[in-house]
Amino acid sequence: MAGRWRSPLRGPWLTSVFGAVLLVTLPLLIVTGLLDHAAYSPQFGQAFPRDVGWLRLPPFDWPTRPSWLFRLTQGLHVTLGIMLVPVVLAKLWSVIPKLFDWPPARSVAQVLERLSLLLLVGGILFQFATGLLNIQYAYLFGFDFYTAHYYGAWVFTAALVAHVGLKLPRLVSALRSRPPRRELATPRAGTRPEPPDPDALVPVHPGAATISRRGALALVGGLSLLLGALTVGQSLDGAWRRTALLLPRGREPGGGPNGFPVNRTAAAAGVRDDDTGEGWRVTLRAGGRTVALDRAALLALPQHTARLPIACVEGWSTLQTWTGVRLRDLAALAGAGDLNSAHVRSLERAGLFNQATLQANQVLDGDSLLALTVNGADLSPDHGFPARIIVPALPGVHCTKWVSEIEFRTRGDG
C-alpha cells in the first residue's frame, strides 16, 4: 500500500503549510457560525435546534449595531467556507497515506490520534458537504440541516482542539524545517522529497515531480481565490452581484425598486391577493389592549426612512432604503410599557419562519420599522406587501413579511 503514494511533494512541510492556513481560518469559521446561531435569539426558542442542552450558548441580546453585523458574519461564514474547500481537499490529499496506515493501532497514543483524525476528517467533510448543499438549495439530507449542522460543528470543534493539541508542536517544527523562500523559489525540476519523517508522509519510493511545491500552493490558492471571486458578489449590490455564479439566489433577480433577491415568494408562502387587499389589517396587542390599523392608517402615522441590509442565512445580502413606521412608535400606540419583546405573526400559513420574536433592543432601535415601501415604491407581494419587519442586524428570515399581528410583551407578562 505504501508504494501507491509516490508524490515527492508529500511531507511534513507541505502538510503543515495547509494545516497552518486551516488553523487560522477554521476558528473564524466556527466563531461566525456560532454568532449566526446567536443572532436568531435562541433564548426565545427560535434558533434551530431549539433544545441543545448544555451545548447552548450563553444568553445575550443580539445587538442592532452595526446594522451590517449579521450581513458580515453570515457572509464571511459562507464565503470563507467555500474558499476553504480547495485547502481542505489539499490537506486531505497530503495526509491520505495516514488514512491507510497499517496496522491501525500500535499504541494507545496512536489510537487516540487516529480517533481524533477520524472525527476531524469526518466532521469537516460532513460540515462542508451539507453546508454547500444547503446554500445551493439542494436538500438531499433526509434530516434537519440546522440540527445536524449545529451538533456537527461541536463534534468537529472538539476533534479540532484535540488534533491541534496533539500535532501543534510537530506542525511548528515542520514549518521551521524548510525555509519558505527557498521552497517558493524551487521549480519543478529542482523539487525533491523531504527527508523521511516519523509520520511516514514522505513516500518510500517517490516518483518524479509533476509540479513543484510552489506550483501546488499556487494552484490551491488560485482555486480558493477563484471560488471567493465567484461568491463574494452575493454580498455586494450592483454589477458585482452578477458575478455570484455559485449562489443561486444571491444574484440580481431584476430591475426596479423591488429588484433584489427574495428567498420565499408570496405564492410559495400561500399568501393570496385577497389576504393583502383592502380588508388587510395589522393588529397590535399589548396587555389587554388591541389596535387594528389598515395600510392607510399606517401611512398616516409619522414615517421614518432607513437604509438597512437584508441578510440571508444562505449568505446573500443586499442594502436597500426602507420607509415605514417605527416599531417603538407602534409599541407606544398599543400602550406597551416596560417592553420585553415583540412577537410578530405573518399571513403565511405554513413554514418555519411565519413568525418571529424580537428582543426589546430590536423593537426600540430608531431604525426598526414596520416597512411599507422600499426605494420609494410600495413593497411588491414577494417582498412582503402590505407591510414587513425591517430591523438592523436581524437575520432576514426574522424580518417577517406579510405582517398580520404584532404582540408587544412587557416584562411583567412572564
UniProtKB/TrEMBL annotation:
InterPro entries tied to this protein: Mopterin_OxRdtase_euk, OxRdtase_Mopterin-bd_dom, OxRdtase_Mopterin-bd_sf
Record Pfam families: Oxidored_molyb
Keywords in alphabetical order: Membrane, Transmembrane, Transmembrane helix
Record region (Disordered): 179-202
All residue ranges annotated as the Oxidoreductase molybdopterin-binding domain in the record: 277-410
Transmembrane segments: 12-35, 75-96, 117-139, 151-172, 216-236
GO molecular function terms noted in the UniProt entry: oxidoreductase activity
PANTHER family, A to Z: BLL0505 PROTEIN, PROTEIN-METHIONINE-SULFOXIDE REDUCTASE
This protein's name: Sulfoxide reductase catalytic subunit YedY
Ion transport is among the record's keywords: no
